[in-house]
Amino acid sequence: MKIVVLVKHVPDAQFDRHITGPGNTTDRDESILSELDEYALEAALQLAEERGGPKAGNEVIALSMGPSGAVNAVKKSLQIGAYSGVHLSDDALAGSDAAATSLALAAAIRHISADGRPVDLVLTGMASTDGETSLIPAQLAERLQFPQVTFASSLEVSGGQISARRDAGAFSETVEAQLPAVVSVTDQINEPRYPNFKGILAAKKKKIAALSLADIGVDASQVGLAGSWTVVESAEARPPRTAGTIITDDGDAGIKLVDFLAAQKLL
Amino acid sequence: MANALVFIDNPGAALKKSSLELLTIARSLGETAVAFTGELNDDVAATLGAYGATTVYQPSVDDLDNYLVGPKAAYLAAAVAASGATAVLVDNSPEGKEIAGRLGIKLNAGVITDVVGVEADGTAHKSVLAGSYNTTAKATTPVTILSVKANNVEPAPAGAATAPATATVEVPAEGLANSARIAARTEKPVSGRPDLSEARIVVAGGRGVDGDFGPVEELADALGAAVGASRAATDAGWIGHDAQVGQTGVTVSPQLYISAGISGAIQQKAGMQTSKVIVAINKDAESPVFEIADYGIIGDLFKVLPQATAEIQKRKG
């Protein structure tokens, strides 16, 4: 099986994050591998291992699109266990919205399929931890004309078909799709492994292919701010929330709480 | 020709408040049409008229629910073409956003998600990076697609009710191909409490409830609130994952958020800090949640919550 896992280099949510520049884009200093992508990577590694791993011809390819720093998300993925990496990087990609991002990623996946071994499965996290739009799996599936299975909390692949369980609001569902497919997984699906010393050493020998827009046959006008269909016109930092009244319970805090709610007209 | 098209998916016997909110926003953009799925009952049709819908589109096939998203996006694309709408409004549920995403690619149209306000020219307001920035965004394409969060406008009927025309939209066959099929579906138990993502009040419990959500649920019921939980509480299996508030759970933006026994780690804060009023109860005075609470109580939730519940019941008589 040939599995591509989308991994994103995102600003660490433990620190303050900032929007900067003429396109009102997110500042990517202090970035890390998006935590939610680790579940997708783990799911890919498990599927490949069940099938005999690399010796049996399975592939787990970590694909990241982003500026030079984004290669770190690929490197981390290799340390965790991805077999190889692809870093799609081009100055023209800066500021791409979901539509432009999905266009570039779809072209990259076609490129990865062009060696005669087509991609069977594209795995993603449930959302990035920066933009959080959750649009990429759906838009990528539409561009590739693959079925999409989103928010999978478990998945099985057999006989060219994927079967997944998912929670969908008021329902629990079992869904089935033919491969190739785009599948996003939740943080309930598994417990991602950590890179160990052996993995970190092994990662140094693994290949990372660098792709530019020219390599994937995409014109600069189709991506970046130029190719995006939405524009962020303004961004204003919200004043941080400040602490209000804090009391220590002396035995009547429940009543004081109700007084507070009444004063705020919230009862 | 309609200006705005609202997608309403299977409302059953009555429209949800979030659908009424979408209809209210749509009217501010111009003439409003509705793309509907499921059975259109008379009360719902009357409500659509009261909210100013001029045309209600229905799909030519009735098995859209047997597939994930793909056919609904194909149907909606055909409804946009039939109505001539330049703005499409969908709810901000995971499915709503995915339909919006696929529709965007089909129509070469910009998609803006997590919208909290819409101006008459289609400019959308949203909050990003876990509520730390407010942004305005706009589609640069002829059609704009917006997924809109609940609880941001008061639903208001139109000045004069209309009797909407109905029309059938042919669902393109390609919508069914290349879509995942739903093989089985089980309904989850219904709690009777408001839906977490739409609730006006949320009472949430965390590690501090130590396996007992009783006091949290009782206060929620006294307030007519939804029950939420931190990841620590759902991971411990004390309550279903559905209740999880935060970055990897449900993002809420209620009028009142009561946090009990939750320290307020960044992922939790990310899911709730756009709440209008935040109340925190925690034994640990150093909990980060106190940094953002409008009203904080350092104390034992097993004493404070039941006392508050009893006091509310007493005042309500």
Quick take:
Chain A is an alpha/beta fold and 267 residues long. Chain A is built from eight helices and 15 strands. In chain A, α2 (71-80) links the parallel β6 and β7.
Structure overview:
The complex is a heterodimer of chains A (267) and B (317). With 267 residues, chain A is an alpha/beta fold. Helices cover 28% and strands 30% of the residues of chain A. Chain A contains 8 helices and 15 strands. Chain A has a 9-stranded mixed β-sheet, sandwiched between helices. In chain A, strands 2-5 form a two-stranded antiparallel sheet. In chain A, strands 3-4 form a two-stranded antiparallel ribbon. In chain A, strand 10 (161-168) and strand 11 form a beta hairpin. In chain A, helix 3 (98-113) packs across helix 4. Chain A starts with a strand and ends with a helix. By secondary structure, chain B is α/β, with parallel strands linked by helices. In chain B, 28% of the residues lie in helices and 27% in strands. A 9-stranded mixed β-sheet of chain B has the order 7-6-5-8-4-1-2-3-9, sandwiched between helices. A 5-stranded parallel β-sheet of chain B has the order 12-11-13-14-15. In chain B, a hairpin with a 4-residue loop joins strand 6 and strand 7. In chain B, helix 5 runs parallel beside helix 8 (301-316). The mean pLDDT of chain B is 92. The interface between A and B is large, with 88 and 91 residues.
Throw out a few tags for this protein.
heterodimer; A: 267 residues; alpha/beta; 9-stranded mixed sheet; two-stranded antiparallel sheet; 8 helices; 30% strand; globular; B: 317 residues; 28% helix
Mean pLDDT of chain A: 93
Q: Order of strands across the biggest sheet of chain A?
A: 11-10-9-12-8-1-6-7-13
Q: Using DSSP, what is the number of strands of chain A?
A: 15
How is the main sheet of chain A built?
A: 9 strands, mixed
User: Which H/E pattern describes the elements of chain A?
Assistant: EEEEEHEHEHEHEEEEHEHHEEH
Helix content of chain B: 25-40%
Q: Report the span from N to C terminus of chain A.
A: 57 Å
Spatial order of the strands forming the largest sheet of chain B = 7-6-5-8-4-1-2-3-9
Which percent range describes the beta-strand content of chain A? 25-35%
